[in-house]
Specification:
Length: about 325
């Protein structure tokens, strides 16, 4: 009937047969996207540091600040590496890493200024809310002041790395990381100064279906308030080589079910990604029948998921073929679709 689903109805959907969820989610996608176009972006996931004091239990990438394997890529080297993105016609730069205790606002503003001076047309979609939180605390500034300075230096939008926006789960898997309220404060501050963001959900930590719906409702409420959430990207937790390696992987059935429910619950978020990075190419392709309209980015040099031992790589040609073989029309986009 087109009515907005309640949280209780969202939980009920987890009991629905998978083919029914596919049918419902695809119907909703067609209401939003009138054609069969599936988009992707050529981007670069550049990891600038692995030094991190937050020490999330779900991460296999970070090293503690005094570890012998800690690195910080110099700005000159970062500029050099970005040329690879430009050479293949890329448009979006994603800079992410650990929460390095030595880095402050001056470091990031210089980094973004240096990048924009060399590559003025490159779109910088970088820094998680956790990194913004760290800078604000280190420099004793408000979140708004930090975001304004970063935006002026060249930061265009924020990736919505959120894991699960449920404080019970966050306390278990990342006790040193900010709570849900602080994440929302940072996202709302970014949206208030005109910056857009994406939003993500990592699931499969042993949370309940009601807690997944709580996360989706948090994103839906944020979007109702600001209208600046550009896309939603759900993916499964990869437990290998992490402190949570004892947790069984969520699996493809659970991924497709949660992807479809995300489309149905998030009636105000236009773009939904099918993720090949954690799920692989074939499952991402199937996800195009479960409400997704985007295959994400090519992610040159992805390192965080790779650290768990799960390593999928792709090219624009691969994504074009995936979309075509699913009966879709592939299209390269930029960060703003």
């Amino acid at each position: 009937e087109g009515d907005r689903l309640t949280p209780e109805e969202g939980v009920q959907l987890f009991e629905a047969p998978l083919p029914i969820l596919s049918q419902l989610a695809d119907h909703r996608r067609k209401q939003i996207h009138k054609n069969e176009i599936v988009t992707f972006v050529i981007d670069y996931n550049l990891m600038y540091t692995n030094s991190c004091y937050v020490a999330c239990k779900f991460c296999a990438f970070y090293r503690l600040p005094n570890d012998a394997e800690v690195y910080l890529v110099p700005n000159e080297e970062i500029i050099k590496r970005i040329q690879k993105l430009v050479d293949v016609g890329g448009t979006t730069l994603l800079i992410q890493g650990g929460v390095n205790p030595d880095l402050d606002l001056a470091y990031y503003t210089k980094l973004f200024n240096d990048i924009k001076q060399t590559y003025p047309h490159l779109y910088i979609h970088s820094l998680s809310a956790t990194e913004i939180d760290h800078v604000a605390r280190k420099d004793k500034m408000s979140v708004k002041e930090v975001l304004q300075a970063l935006n002026q230096a060249g930061l265009d939008s924020l990736p919505g790395a959120a894991e699960l926006l449920v404080d019970r789960v966050r306390q278990e898997i990342s006790p040193l990381k900010m709570n849900k309220a602080r994440w929302l404060e940072i996202m709302e501050a970014a949206h208030a100064i005109g910056m857009e963001s994406t939003a993500t959900m990592t699931f499969g930590f042993g949370e309940s279906f009601a807690e997944r719906i709580e996360h989706l409702m948090t994103i839906r409420d944020l979007q109702d308030k600001t209208g600046k959430v550009r896309a939603f990207i759900p993916w499964t937790f990869t437990p290998q080589h992490t402190e949570l390696a004892h947790i069984p992987p969520a699996g493809g059935y659970d991924y497709l079910r949660t992807l479809a429910i995300s489309r149905l619950m998030l009636d105000n978020v236009k773009h939904l990604h099918a993720g090949w990075v954690t799920e692989g190419h074939k499952l991402a392709q199937i996800g195009l029948s479960y409400g997704a309209n985007d295959l994400g980015g090519t992610l040159l040099e992805e390192e965080v998921v790779s650290a768990t031992g799960v390593h999928y790589a792709t090219t624009p040609k691969d994504l074009i073929q995936l979309a075509r073989n699913a009966g879709k029309i592939p299209a390269q986009r930029n960060s703003q679709y």
